[in-house]
Amino acid sequence: MKEYHNAIEAHGNTKCFSEQNFNRLLVTMKERTVPEGSHLFWEGDYSDKLFYIKRGRVKLTKSTDEGKELILYMYQAGDMVGQADPFFSTKHSFTAEVIEDSEVGVIEHKDLEILICQHCDFAIDFMKWMGIHHRLTQTKFRDLMMYGKPGALCSTLIRLGNTYGEKSGENILINKKITHTDLSNMIGATRESVNRMLSDLRKKDAVEYENGMIVIKDLGMLQEICHCEMCPGEICRI
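^ Crp/Fnr family transcriptional regulator, sequence as received from the core. Prediction below:
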C-alpha cells in the first residue's frame, strides 16, 4: 500500500497523513468513476462528503452573478477535495468540475467523524490537512489583491511550474496546455490583459512558448514581480 500511496500522491495535499491514517481513509472510500465535463458538486449543494482524486484532474471555481468564472484551485491525483469544515451543516461555496476522466474515492462526513473520534492521531493529521487548505486560500487572496494583475499572473505561473513543471536546464516547462482564457480566469483578469502581460514577459525573456506550452526561462524575475515569499511546495501550487 505504501508504493500506491506514494505513486498517486506525488504532488497531493494528503502528504500530511501518515501511511496508517491514509490507509484508514482508503478503507472508508467508495470508488466512483466520473467523466470529463461532469461535476463532483455545485456551488450551493449541501456539503456532506469529501472526494479523494485517485486519477484525473478537477478544478474548483467560483461564479459571479454576471456569469464570470474564477478558477481557484486545480486538483490532481493525490488531492482531497471538499469543504474543510465537515462538522457543520454547510453548503459548498465553490463548484468542482472534472476536467479529465477521473477516478475518485468518496468519503462520507459521518465516516470521517468516526475516524476522528476513534483515532486521535488521525484527528491531528486531518487538522494539518485543514491548515493546508486555509494557507492555500490565504495565498490565493494575496495573489489577487496585493501586487496587481502582473503579480497575480507571475505567481500563477510559478504555481503552475511547481505543479506541472519539468526542468530542462535552467528552464521549466509547464507540461499542461494552459490557455490565456484559463489564466485570465485564474487571476480575475480579461483575456486581453493576460495576452498583453504575457507579451511583456516574453519581451523580457522571462517566459517563452514551446509546442503551445509555457516555458519559464527566468524564475527569479517572476518571483521579483510577485514579491514571492518562498512558500513550501504544498502551498505554492495551483
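Helices lie at 2-8, 19-28, 109-118, 120-145, 148-164, 180-187, 191-203, 219-225.
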